[in-house]
Amino acid sequence: MIIDFIQPLTSSVTSTLHSIFMLSSSRHYWLYMACYLAIATALYFYAKPKSSQHSFIQHLFPRQIYTHPSVILDLKIWFVIILVVKFGIFGILYTIVGKFSALTDSIFDLLGPAWQAERSNEAPGFMDRVWFTLILTCCIDFGFFIMHYCQHKISWLWAFHRVHHSAEVLTPATANRHHPVDYTLEAGTAILLGAIGTVVFTRYHGTEVDRLTLLNTSAIHCVYYMTANLRHSHLWLSFGQWPSRIFVSPAMHQIHHSIDQKHYNKNFGFVFSFWDWLFRCRYIPTTREDLTFGLHNNEFGYKGLIDSMVRPFRESFGKLASIKLWARKSPWTNT
Ligand SMILES: [Zn+2]
Ligand SMILES: [Zn+2]
Q: What are the residue ranges spanned by the domains of the chain?
């Protein structure tokens, strides 16, 4: 009897852990986590300030960060996100946006026969795949960027996104500290723009093209994930001035989490930083900066898991009612 109950539970836990740590499309894939440790080790030996007394283990896992209550809340919210994705509380939306090829087919159907590609008999070459991979990555990345931009500018979207920014310390688990609505909007916009990009490319190219892959996932995202776990961490990794004009470095995302006024509403990008340049909100640090993470005193954080999940609905409905309340007020407005 108990076995009947335990068996599905253990297989569910095993498959969840497998999808988090053993799939290369997950940012916590074991190889990306190994890259995190390798870069952290390199930073200890080559970039540690001479005055630092920290041991190697303290450098990797500082006790004041990993025992902070904010990390416990990160993990609780991550658990909720796993439930949402796995057991489909937002199932309808995930069914629609989660099946990428089904979505592109639906868009083709919607546009009618004129948009069906004039089929080319030539097999796509390597450069076709390079172009398709670049265009698809740009579409998905712009989807993430534009929704993230709106989440900071529109008050009722900010009510949900604030859950992510209420983290007072950053660890790789903070990447999953998102309200399910926030998470769904970001992923949904990215997948929708990716599907539209695929439809347009296929229409003009004449045939379907596969993207370039590395470790069975998109090649560009695979390389991005090698350093992505440092974005939410205590470790500072900047790419320098020129590469940061194209790619968002982990340091640039930490600037995004900073509560300093000069960092307010900067660096919304995920892979590419030129979107931030286009929208005049790019901030490339020239030197290491001391950062405080979390929310400004005028922007109240959420207390605990239930508050983080429930209060954004209450706040956003209050703001949705009147369009005058849609613009997010800067926390420095009254100071
Ligand atoms: Zn943000
Ligand atoms: Zn973040």
A: 27-40+61-116+124-319
Say how many Å lie between the CA of residue 105 and the centre of ligand 2: 33
Distance in Å, CA 330 to ligand 2 centroid: 19
Write 236-245 long-range contacts (CB < 8 A, 24+): 236/43, 236/47, 236/288, 237/39, 237/43, 238/285, 238/288, 241/284, 241/286, 244/273, 244/284, 245/273, 245/274, 245/277, 245/284
Ligand 2 center from residue 237 Cα (angstroms):
15
- Per-residue model confidence as pLDDT tens digits over 318-333: 888 877 778 888 888 7
| Beta strands, E only, 164-273 | 213-214, 217-218
Residue 191 Cα, ligand 1 centroid: separation in angstroms?
A: 19
Distance 126 CA to ligand 1 centre (A): 36
The whole-angstrom separation of Cα 52 and Cα 62 is 13
Rg (alpha carbons) of the chain, rounded to whole number: 21
For ligand 1, the distance from its centroid to the CA atom of residue 223, given in whole angstroms, is: 22
Query: What are the pLDDT digits (tens) for 258-307?
Result: 999 999 999 999 999 999 999 999 999 999 999 999 998 878 778 899 99
Cα-based distances in Å from 163 to 93, 152, 175, 317, 329: 21, 12, 11, 16, 17
CA of 253 to the centre of ligand 2 (A): 6
Cross-strand pairs, 9: none
Q: Ligand 1 centre and the CA of 220: distance in Å? A: 22
- Which residues, listed in sequence order, are joined to residue 154 by a DSSP beta bridge? 327
Residue 272 DSSP SS3: strand
What predicted TM-score, i.e. pTM, was given to this entire model?
0.89
CA torsion sign, 250 to 134 to 183 to 33?
A: negative
Ligand 1 geometric centre to CA of 281 (Å): 12
Q: How far is the CA of 164 from the centre of ligand 2 (A)?
A: 7
